[in-house]
Design a protein that fits this description.
Elements (H helix, E strand, L loop, with lengths): L1 H8 L7 E2 L14 E2 L17 H20 L14 H13 L3 H4 L9 H11 L1
Parallel strand pairs: 1-2
Helix pairs in contact: 3-5
Pfam family, one: DBI_PRT
Keywords: Glycosyltransferase, Transferase
GO molecular function: nicotinate-nucleotide-dimethylbenzimidazole phosphoribosyltransferase activity
Length: about 130
């Protein structure tokens, strides 16, 4: 992820936390902290990605981790994600919270998607 590239470039420690990776936890490296709320997420075009309870649990977990980092002397916490389709979920939240159209907040991701794929992505977010 871009966050890991920046961390490596500036020799900054990084903590990777499994909140909802879609894999078997046993397959993850020992360095990954396991605080799984659920495995993977729902398809946002047909169901909620996560329940309200899971979202609250994940946010509270993030707050606790940020508090731990602050208590240990960390000056800055930068969040990142390891996902396929993570920008789609993020754009859905931003569009809903800001009351704006999906096309305003939908990017083309790191892969540089073509126009048709971008339009489908916007439709899924709407």
């Amino acid at each position: 992820s871009p966050v890991s590239v920046l961390a490596r470039r500036f020799s900054v420690p990084m903590r990777i936390v499994d909140v909802s990776l879609d894999c078997d936890p046993e397959l993850l490296p020992e360095s990954v902290v396991r605080h799984r709320v659920r495995r993977g997420s729902g398809r946002i075009d047909i169901e909620d990605a996560i329940s309200a309870e899971e979202a609250e649990q994940a946010v509270r977990l993030g707050m606790a981790i940020a508090d731990e980092e602050a208590d240990s002397g960390t000056d800055l916490v930068v969040l990142g994600d390891l996902s396929v389709g993570g920008t789609t979920a993020a754009a859905t939240l931003v569009a809903a919270l800001c009351g704006t159209d999906a096309s305003v907040v939908t990017g083309r991701g790191g892969a540089g998607i073509d126009d048709l794929t971008w339009m489908r992505k916007c439709a899924a977010i709407r």
